[in-house]
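Exercise 3.2. Students should predict the tertiary structure of the chain below and write it as structure tokens, then compare their answer with the key that follows.

Predict this chain's 3D structure.
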Amino acid sequence: MRFDRSDAVFCHVTSLPGAYGIGDLGEGAREFLSFLGDADVDHWQICPIGPTISAAGESPYQSPSAFAGNPLFVDPEGLVDDGWLDGGDLDPVPEFPTDRVDYDAVREYKLPLLRTAFERFEERASEDDRAALDEFREREPWLADYALFRALSDARPEDVWTEWPEPLRTRDPEALAGAREEHAREVRFREFVQWTFDRQWRDLRAVAAEEGVSIVGDVPIYVALDSADVWASPEAFRLDEGNRPTAVAGVPPNAGDTGQRWGNPLYDWEHLAETGYDWWLDRFRRLFELADVARLDHFLGFVKYWAIPADSDDPADGEWRDGPGRDLFETVERELGEAPFIAEDLGFEEPAMDELMAEFGFPGMRVPQYADWCAEGNEYQPMHYGEGVVGYTSTHDTDTWAGYFEDLPAKQRDCFRYNVGSDPDEPSEWAIIDAVWGSDAILAVTTLQDLLGLGSESRFNEPGTLDGNWEWRVARGALDDEIADRLWELGGKHVR
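Answer key:
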């Protein structure tokens, strides 16, 4: 096992409090880390921190880059501290909603500030500043292609890159050189923003380390088609001669549903194996620059994956194909050492997946909202969690615990109370937190919403829908000393 027994709180960056419409890497994040430190919580778990786009419903799992950071997370006050903005540049601050993110309003406010900061950098930067940016360019090989991709995407906002003129779509060297010259200033702007994000994130990680908090990042197995990842490394994916997908990801039909067609391009695992999985090693290296632990989303896809012909809208037309399995993770261990991975294994029963997780010591996930509370020995009941799992009270994709419990049939509620030994007068969210913390799970995790006892109106994401997701924010001051003290006591009772 690659983990010590420990605990965590899930809160995506967007949900943090702050004055500028969205959680960012500034004061609100530092206050949250201070709360975790006071509660003696070991980990902060987040969603992927890449850029998001409105066309994908702001989903962090459909980002234009698996390597870049979200520009909206940049702290404007940090740009003032750097000297690239003046204090007056931040005024007037719009009256943003405090309980949710209005992404359009945040972009309208923040992106001009980033461009002003870039213009000041171009005018005022010292030799040391310019050298630091140059060092970042050299250190991050993905940056040049990402910056050019975003510049080209801005120039053709109506098209995904697979509809660009063929020389750009297929990365003709002469066309790329011309594009870099034509869009040189926009490319430099994108590089500046990523450098700024990287510096602010590293500063925040240092604060986390001072509080004794590790960061649990998230790795979506698939990347978006309209991304710098696919455009810049077409050989890593199953594309045709025109660099368009031949098959896309999804899951097959099950009893009661018709399956799902996600539409993400599939990896060319044979080519990746021949190159020593360089693309994945680069991705993991970047991840572990930004986080200490990684959750691997849809872990089954590393064992086997459902391939749907790109010209079909019917998931039933797909077929199972073999993933890289142990070969990939042996390579990762050889090159990077024992990487601390959590495997998202929910919803699938696959012996080969279980064997792979056991071989490498990757804990799976257990979410009590999937439990039948009246069934003896149900694996999703916390009292039956083994050491090789991470126990959650809820996740970013489920309802909040309070929302789930409100809709639970009376008999299931009674069985829940009986099984966890809770008083009917005790809030059910603290009963489940106590049960998960008291389980044998190697890592116990709750969400900010569950700590606050919030209902379905505070749900973070509902899979299969676009509107209203990824918006929830916590109010400043909501995480008080009483909650920190209670978490501290639970940790002392069950974890430490």
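Discussion points: The mean pLDDT is 96. The first strand starts at residue 6 and ends at 10.
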